[in-house]
Design goal:
Blueprint lengths: L3 H5 L6 E3 L9 E5 L5 E8 L5 E8 L6 H16 L4 H10 L3 H13 L13 H19 L9 H10 L4 H17 L25 H14 L4 H13 L3 H6 L5 E2 L4 E4 L7 E4 L2 H8 L22 H11 L8 H14 L4 H8 L2 H7 L7 H17 L18
Antiparallel strand pairs: 1-2, 2-3, 3-4, 5-6, 6-7
Helix pairs in contact: 4-5, 9-11, 9-12, 9-13, 14-15
């Protein structure tokens, strides 16, 4: 029977088996070339395959009696059809979170991962996903086995990720849903984790900043006519930058003052257009199918917008935190100042809930057009743009 004495007398390169009263069949100890001694168990699986399973190395905490007790428990599992050695091999070969993320991105690029709207992810979304994976998910969870990730791991991840944690944890939930479909685990450890609120960008332009922005747009319009027109369109509409860059002429009806966008962040969307926004579009040359193309005749959206926006912001002496998204929030804030309802503001901006009913409308109604005019006129006033004088119509005096 294996004892501390027999372990101490074990020669290098030799194996000794448990024997005598109380011995466990297949339980033994092996000494390699050095001083280390390892406890092991030899058994046969239900398919009659011989397996060698390492229990642990002699020394704290393993003793002959502890290892023998562990061998008995393992043999009970083997009798029930388990394969401890095979399980350990599978665990070593199991995919890590980093490998899962790579598979997820590859599947998403191939169109095999759909959004909540059951459409494939856009290239811009995939770029953002890849950034969140490389900056946050892989450094913090990448080395863990997919099957071993626990809710506690996700909770720690949620607390460790800086701004944008909610969306990153949301992406992680989608990645683990992908793992479930791949059969890599049975549950989603992200489900039920309370996400921290993202640092919402509540910044809005002040009246002084609006005036400075108006001066900058007028000063740069000669050198960058299309790009400054694009920036001014964002100011007057509150649209998302991507929506503006992807806007096509066949989506715009200047007569009904309506834009019907086929594909936005919230799906198909109908937007009322103010007179100011329509006037801005009428002044643009039709160089391609896109309203704001990269160049004349090009069917690709301009890539220079971020760079030129930087020049505009610099010319207006705007703080570094002012981005095109700030223009969207500022538009909503001006609309709120004018007592527009949340539903009206949502319709003007193309929010998800407001978009649901708009898919059944063919043109904007008078109330929404009036709201778009009120907000755009106020913003134009803040930009320092001269408002058109009202037409005066002479009326005949009624005869007595």
């Amino acid at each position: 029977m294996l004892t501390l004495k027999t372990i101490a007398s074990l020669n290098p390169g030799s194996t000794i088996w448990d024997n005598g009263k109380g011995a466990v069949t297949g339980f033994g100890a092996r000494r390699q070339k050095g001083e280390a001694v390892t406890y092991l168990l030899k058994y046969r699986t239900a398919a009659s395959r011989q397996r060698w399973h390492t229990i642990g190395r002699h020394g704290a905490p393993w003793t002959p009696d502890m290892a023998r007790a562990a061998a008995r428990r393992l043999l009970v599992e083997v009798a029930g059809g388990a394969d401890p050695a095979g399980r350990k091999q599978d665990s070593r070969k199991a995919a890590t979170v980093a490998e899962l993320c790579d598979d997820y991105l590859e599947a998403a690029k191939a169109g095999r991962v759909l959004t909540r709207r059951r459409v494939v992810k856009k290239p811009s979304t995939l770029t953002t996903d890849a950034s969140r994976i490389s900056c946050h998910i892989k450094p913090l969870l990448g080395s863990l086995k997919v099957a071993a990730v626990s809710r506690a791991d996700i909770e720690r991840f949620n607390e460790s990720v800086p701004g944008g944690a909610s969306r990153t944890v949301g992406l992680l939930g989608g990645i683990f849903s992908f793992a479930i479909r791949r059969g890599l685990r049975a549950d989603n450890p992200v489900r039920g984790v309370e996400r921290r609120a993202d640092g919402q960008r509540q910044r809005r332009l002040s009246e002084t900043e609006y005036a400075a922005l108006g001066d900058a747009l007028r000063a740069l319009s000669k050198d960058h006519p299309i790009t400054t027109a694009a920036a001014r369109f964002l100011v007057l509409t509150g649209w998302r930058r991507g929506e503006m860059l992807q806007l096509k002429w066949n989506e715009v009806d200047l007569v009904t003052r309506t834009a019907r966008l086929a594909d936005t962040k919230t799906g198909a969307s109908m937007r009322p257009l103010s007179h100011s926004a329509c006037d801005a579009l009428r002044e643009l040359p039709r160089m391609s199918a896109l309203v704001f193309p990269a160049s004349a005749g090009a069917d690709k959206p301009m890539r220079s917008f971020p760079k030129v926006w930087g020049r505009i912001a610099k010319a207006a002496s705007l703080p570094p935190g002012i981005t095109p998204h700030t223009l969207r929030h500022s538009f909503a804030s001006v609309a709120a100042d004018l007592d527009c309802s949340d539903l009206t503001i949502g319709t003007l901006l193309g929010h998800r809930k407001a978009t649901v009913t708009s898919r059944y409308a063919h043109h904007a109604d008078a109330v929404m057009l009036q709201a778009a005019d009120r907000v755009a006129d106020r913003i134009a006033e803040l930009l320092g743009e001269a408002r058109p004088a009202a037409d005066v119509v002479a009326m005949r005096m009624a005869r007595a």
